Amino acid sequence: MTYRSMLVALDALPANPARINIAIALARQFEAHLIGLAPIPTLDLQTLQAAAMDDYVARASATMQAQAHDIAQHFHARCEAAALPSFEALVDKAPVAESLTSRAQCTDLLVMSQPDPSLPGHKQQLAELEEVLLDCSRPVLLVPYTHLEPLRLRRVLLAWDGSRESVRAMTDALPLLRRAEAVTLMHWRGEADDQRPLERLAGLRQWLAFQGVDAEVRDEVTPLSVGDALLNAASDHGADLIVMGAYGHARWTERLFGGVSRTLLQSMTVPVLMSH
């Protein structure tokens, strides 16, 4: 298993250049075809009066289409400058989340960015990202909006909670795990929880070894939420990448009670590969 084709989301946000750089570097490492996709954002019409709507929609739509084409052309120029052998740039009129999830079906990996809470439109961007994570049939590599460096693979943290999603993320990340210098497979539990997961951790370590990945196994008892414990572990281990399942519970449950996925989307400090 490897990555033969990748899709990177393109937009006009400040995180776009760093995201493109990471996608180009990954495509080069895996000799993969890289697709840059610039969806045309959806207009927010809630604040407009009916009389002004038609004229505004026509002008705003033309502006956003032109911007999307400019973004796609810039991506094309970046790939040419990087001498990437196989790439293409696309513009799509479909809604952002629908566009990305649909196009990602024909690729092996989708690269996106964590929404920046200080920017206008953050709530809409977060909602679109959550929709992609829930509906996407491929793994999503999320780059923190503060991350400006290349993606390093010295130390990778695998978060396992016994869910189907966490195992799928582990499988989806195999091409990256095989290139990592050190991989840590971690599980967190409260003091009252039993130790039965330890047997499955040993089995997962063996499975990873069969896949060419030598992983250290760690089971930790913690009073913290799993999301906070995961972030602390990433910092303590100097992790360059976190691999985890996304939305192992229903999204409304995670929104109501917190949830590891929501914690990471809000507070990630290193790139995170998520699979649902």
Automatic annotation (TrEMBL):
**Matches recorded under InterPro entries:** Universal_stress_UspA, UspA
Domain of life of the organism encoding this protein: Bacteria
- List, alphabetically, the Pfam families matched: Usp
Q: Which residues form the UspA domain?
A: 154-274
Q: Which family does it belong to?
A: Belongs to the universal stress protein A family.
- Protein name per UniProt: Nucleotide-binding universal stress UspA family protein
* Organism field: Roseateles saccharophilus (Pseudomonas saccharophila)
